[in-house]
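Before drawing any conclusions, I looked closely at one protein, both as residues and as discrete backbone shape codes, quoted below without any editing:
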Amino acid sequence: MDIELDAELAELEIAGVDVECLIRDMDDIETAVLELALYPQFTDYFRQAFDLINAATSFWLEDGAYALCAERVTGTLFRLRDVIDDHASATEAGSLPNVIRHLPGFNHQATDSQLVAAFALVLGTQAVEVLANWLFELELATYDIDADLIEQLRNESPRHYLALIEKERYRRSGLEIQAREQFAVFMGEANQTLLMANFYQQVEHMDVSKNGFNTSSLMHRILDEAFSAKATRRGQEAGKGNLDPSSKIQTEAMDRRSKIKAAAETIIDGRKIEKRSLSDAELTNLLFDQTVHGTKKTIREHLTALGLRPLK
């Protein structure tokens, strides 16, 4: 099925703002982020992200204004970000611009540097999304206590309002870890992608031919090979790393299992003292509610591997 270029993003909400266009709505997003109660503690994080986003969007400036197609191209890449990432990670993908151009029905004359920069913009936006929405959810959670009272505190006693949010933050510490990790991953990939966009732009500006030797063509081939080599390494390292007991994935899995074991034993011991029964589902739900052990499916798998059975 052919792809229709469209600025619409499907569903994207950042810090309470409904985002319809990555370029047009970015000022509103930044304003909403600045108003988050815990923003001062994450100023540097957001500044880095918005600086990257501004740099990425600058690739689409033409005579002081954004190209007419910029909104449609960036919107399309955002909607198809998972498909693009999957293809770009494959060994045979070649390069990010080629991956995008080979999407069914994608027919646009944007430069390679613009396409790569647009994807950097997508990644940077995702970084802002995960961090801002975690902070926003903390504030929403406090309103569950008493919306009118919390609103009054926010306006009349910011210090007490902030204290409530910090309490909720502590209670959901597992979610903070996830948000920080996801932010770091997105920003790392966004910075690498923006660097590649700058390389492509340099290539586009140095197209010098002499006696049939095309510098631009050579540089494009080098960049394409760099993307392919990077994808190959990612695939090979992931395959080998997952089997290595000392790999990051295996280490994290074992660490999670030990934490689940300790938490489960605490719950089971408590029920023994109380002489109360405990079902499989209840134990899983209690561990899941702690928000640090992963999904219910993951918890059940670890409990089964550990041989921890609840009290019937």
